[in-house]
Amino acid sequence: MMRKAIAISGILVLAGCTTTAPVVPTTVSRPMDPTGLERVIGQDAAGLTRLFGNPDQDFRETGARKLQFRGASCVLDTYLYPERNGREPVVTYVDARNAAGEDVDRAACVEALARR
User: Fold this and answer.
1) What number is the average pLDDT over the span 88-92?
2) Which CATH number is 79's domain given?
3) What residues contact 59, with CB distance under 8 A and at least 6 apart?
4) What is the pLDDT of residue 18?
């Protein structure tokens, strides 16, 4: 009986020694539907300023720029990247959220900010 208990406990100890692949977290980016964003996509910084007024924040990195516009109902982040032809960077991606940081409809945010 004692040998059986030792054998079972040995098996249980060895069972805990198995290796598993580490779990790698993934980020899922939401694809951007350009519908309703025609007024923004392709605009340069001057065009955005004409549409929304002065940006609330202006972030610059090497070769990229993010202009942020805030309104009562949403925050709009516009991402500008340089064109291949050497022109001014233009908007290629837009993201929108409410004050709590939850995603909101991008096109609706553009409309709300353009009316302010």
Assistant:
1) 93
2) 3.30.1450.10
3) 65, 66, 67, 68
4) 53
